[in-house]
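Predict the assembly for these two chains.
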Amino acid sequence: MAMEMRLPVARKPLSERLGRDTKKHLVVPGDTITTDTGFMRGHGTYMGEEKLIASVAGSVERVNKLICVKALKTRYIGEVGDIVVGRITEVQQKRWKVETNSRLDSVLLLSSMNLPGGELRRRSAEDELAMRGFLQEGDLISVQAVFSDGAVSLHTRSLKYGKLGQGVLVQVSPSLVKRQKTHFHDLPCGASVILGNNGFIWIYPTPEHKEEEAGGFIANLEPVSLADREVISRLRNCIISLVTQRMMLYDTSILYCYEASLPHQIKDILKPEIMEEIVMETRQRLLEQEG
Amino acid sequence: MAGLELLSDQGYRVDGRRAGELRKIQARMGVFAQADGSAYIEQGNTKALAVVYGPHEGMGQGWTQGSQLKGARGRHMQDRERKTGGFVLEIRGSRARALPDRALVNCQYSSATFSTGERKRRPHGDRKSCEMGLQLRQTFEAAILTQLHPRSQIDIYVQVLQADGGTYAACVNAATLAVLDAGIPMRDFVCACSAGFVDGTALADLSHVEEAAGGPQLALALLPASGQIALLEMDARLHEDHLERVLEAAAQAARDVHTLLDRVVRQHVREASILLGD
């Protein structure tokens, strides 16, 4: 059996290799952003003695009269219309508590959940008692977010959302998921991906029959073929290498990274040198594509 | 005390520093990918590692033996299982500890068994660790803007890997960087340093040899921009005439630490910003 060992080596900062600098105004907590009182203060700032002071380390963003500081990485802050992937943590009366990598657990009300078969009716007391039969602690779901009072409120209005079956979950920082029109992608390499805005990414084998959308209540427990599983593992490693090199995640970048990684074995993708090589190639291709 | 000159006639200390000089500081942020925020700092030979989780849902606490977890909640404890050797377990959903108007700051201090000259029997849970945890909590409650996150909890875990004097200061500095890395809003940096008093001179940033000599020692945590003191601790006898000088030496040293930490944070932010692209 072959074993690989590595010795610690000083890493060169990645930004040097890119050879470019940032034009943003970067601040750390305690820095005065401005002494002009005409501005409204947004997230990441606070007022102290007539000065606007930063409270997080990040870049200053100015929209007309509003100044806010966007931190490098934070927990997920819900916005209306976001798609998130979450895990059930508690079953309570008439609602479920869902963990979505945000400051507080999100709430999924019974009335916001699809019923099996897609019926539309008022939820009765029997439904309340059967809640645990629908979703238990540990289940993964994909839902749409409605933001309210600090805790995110979730709902699964269409049958596209619901309990997830077999697949792989990758947890990344929410700031690395790019906002797009759709978050459900069917990649040409043979797997599908859901990019949750909260940083939870779900990779699963593309289902053959797209017509039967049952909201996930029929759990598909058929064994997944080896070829599909290899594709899914490779995708997962590609996503992790993109995240380590701090690249934004969206369908094009994941696809290019997948193609760049094909010459290597799946388990080699996570080695630092190969990771850098693959991501550099992805970066170049994306730059060329942009023109 | 026997024949060890803490301050020579020419004004040099045991390790060759001047009275107000700090030890070499090296720090790095974002050491662990899994935690929300993490940082590592070396102050001379003192090495400390800080990890921050949060803000997340407020959790209660319960005691359990070993890792026998009962019930469906057990599966998710892996998410939140702490390196406490199974002594204290966090149970989700208990409302007992969540505060309705602000975030709860929870600090735990642990020193590795190999951190001191003689192997330590109990790395955590002993009186000194609990007291350190409480002091860290006081310090950070003053600096973190807790009103912005009601009903949530912020966990700060600090571990000392090598203790060569000034452990409280190194812990505070590491925890500041880790909290910044996690994106939790703070009023300002919290910079800390220790100070002592020997032969009429105030010394800044004491090493283990100087602490063990038995003179008065002061630990100070400061918010540099406003000059406000987050925590001041001393348990020794010092004449009040000398207090001001020692306090000033500690404050100046804390401001010097701030200059260094500021540089580390700016570089980290700049690099991440370049990688993400404009």
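Chain B touches chain A through 46 residues (CB under 8 Å). DSSP finds five helices and eleven strands in chain B.
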